[in-house]
Design brief:
The relative contact order is 0.14. The protein is mainly alpha-helical. It has one domain. Helices cover 83% and strands 0% of the residues. Keywords: Membrane, Transmembrane, Transmembrane helix.
Length: 161
Amino acid sequence: MQQERNRAAGYPKAAKIICWLLTAACMCVIFWLSSRTADESSAQSDIFVELLQRIFGDGLITEFIVRKGAHFCEYAGLGFLFALSFYIQFGKTKTPAAVLCASAYAVTDELHQLFVDGRACRAADWAIDTAGAILGATVLLLAVLICKKRAEARENKAIRN
C-alpha cells in the first residue's frame, strides 16, 4: 500500500493535471460531436464512408459501420484516458473505475442526443461505447503490466550481474 502511494506521489502534479485535462478534452469533443444534428453527422460520416470504400471497395463499408466504429473509437480513447488519469493520480491501475466513468458518460451522451434534431438515445450505442471503453482501459492496463514486467526483468538482470 505504501509503495503504491509512493508511486502516485512520484508523478509530478503537472502530469496529473495534464492527464485529467486530456480526459476532459476528450469528453468535450464527444459532446460536440453528439451536438451535431443527424444531417450534419451523416455528412461527416459520408466523407469517411467514401474514403474507406475507395480503400476496401464498395459494399463492405456502410455509414452504419462507420458511425458505430466512431462510437467505439471515441470511447476507447476516453476509457484509455480515464485509465491513464487514474493510474497517474493514484499510482495503480483502476480499470473498473475507468470503464464505469466512461460508461456513465456514455449514458449522459445518449440522453443528450434526445435533445438534438434527428438524433436518438439508443441502448445499443451505449453498449458499443462501453465496449470501446473496456478496450481502451484494457490497453492501458496491458501497457502498464508490460512495462512493469520489463522493469522487473531489468532489475533482476542488474542484480545477477
